Amino acid sequence: MASGAIRVLLIEDQETDYLLTRRMLASCENQSFDLQWANSWQSGIEAIRRCVHDVCLLDYRIGGADGLELLKESCDIGCKAPVILLTGISDYRLDLEAMELGAADFLIKDKITPELLERSIRYAMAQSKAMLELRRQQEDLRASELRFRSVVQSAGDAIILADETGKIVFWNKGAETIFGYVEDEILGAQIETLLPETYRAQHRESFERFRLTGRSQIIGKTVELQGLRKDQSLFPLELSLASWTNGTGTMFTAIIRDITERRGTEELRWAKEAAEDASHAKSACLARMSHELRTPLHSIIGFTNLLIGNKSRNFSDQDVNLLRRILTNAKEQLKLVDAVLDFSKIEAKQMDVEVEPVSIDVIVRDVVEQFEAERRSTDIPIVLCLPPTVAPIHADAQKIKQVLMNIVDNALKFTKRGTVTVELILSPGNKQPIRIDVTDTGVGMPPERLNEIFQPFHQLESGPHHPKGTGLGLSICKSLCDLMGYELQVHSEPGRGSTFSIVFEESSRLPLTA
Amino acid sequence: MRKIAVVDDNSDNRLIIRTILEDQYEILEFSSGLEAIEGFRQKKPDVVILDISLPEMDGTEILRRIRDDPQLHDLPVIALTAHAMVGDREKYLAAGFNDYVAKPILDMTILFSTIQRWET
Predict the structure, then answer these.
(1) Which end of chain A has fewer CB atoms at under 10 Å, N or C?
(2) At what angle do helices A15-26 and A114-154 cross, to 10 degrees?
């Protein structure tokens, strides 16, 4: 095929007509043609199917068939090339019919001249090109429209269009979800339908002002308002309003978001911040109280210690005894201060657990040694049972120590004869601690009272054999164990003694191995 | 005789420390931060016992100024405070105090042993 040549398909059963056409095309000076001849309906269809021609010349009578039929079929199989119908006779109705079916031109065979044919082909091709371009643009437009429609429809926000009278002309799925109206119900309604009564007057006023002056306080901005759903319920919304002008007038686009959830989150955040402030204030108050309560005790204990330690003053034994009583009471007072503050701290949820790898055996030994250091000769002995190797666990050493101190202190208080045994029990597999048992041979407790002892301010009936205390110690121990995820267990038999166990949480240990 | 500086706005507290320590140390008493820092520069104590809750300039701030001062920065400073809730010791050690003693001082020997750790 020559470059620049127009590729012409001729569907024509008369060889003489073919030759004639060929001659005419060849005689065109300004344009070269590359002619292919199909001499039957079938070969014509096949040639059309290949879509390699720029133009198609179609004889009206081909074999026994009607050229219009072939024209229809060629359109059906997607012929892109323009079709010029060639006919032996002039027939206006046939001409119109061919035009309807999409023929580019209608030429009478015996009136065809080379110039006429060349021009008809040229015009047909230009027209076809324009048509194809138009169709492509329409398709693009349709695709674009579809794309935008999908975006608008799939948006979670309500996208609503209103005309310059405030009438709703477009309503997306998001709007349906947010307001509860389906498209058919709401199209044509006034936009103020979506506003509660209290906003409507204001809405009308600003709408009117915009119409008269072109000025608006909310167009181009995002504002928060209340919306009215179909079920007449109110909800907070965020509105972005825009206006634009097209050929038919001003249009308004409203993008609306239901901010109920966001409001909820904001309120939650405010509440959380307020709670954190309050909690911070509680913490600060407890720390201040602790400081203020300790300061005078510091003076009392300090001065009393100085007097007792000062040999040069020659105090009588009686005097020293009285001073010691002051000291004992002050120390008791200090324990009370600590217990009350710990209790308040737990109640105020100000107690934090700080976990790090710790060796429980070290803690147990420390506690027992501390008691041993203060031990008087009349006190009962503490028996310490520690396994040789203990694997570390993640725990809050400070709090475990505090609980253990308290339990051992209690055991010593309530035991007049025998021993207090502190034993660390390990998992046989991984050598990690399972629990600490503190067993005494003291007064013991009846089973029905075992739950009460962990209640704050509770103490079993006092008597000559029952030393006093704050009634907070075990309650604090229980709370601390709860906080750390441990269990504080007690087994007891009246007259035989009690065992208190700190049972470590499962997750702080590796699984047992056989 | 080695010099121990006591910074505390409460005269009871200064008296207690003075009475406990004065047989073995020379005691320098200060009741405020500014007075103390000036005094440290002049009298060069061996160890400082510093209260935390002081009016105007608190103990943590005084410590910061000591550490920032080229003359004083390596002075051993012991926090002596009634801030004695769980975690306070760790808090003050982390803040840069060399040591920590809680008020009330239940056992006077603790004060001696703490000072002895730092007086070299």
Answers:
(1) C
(2) 90
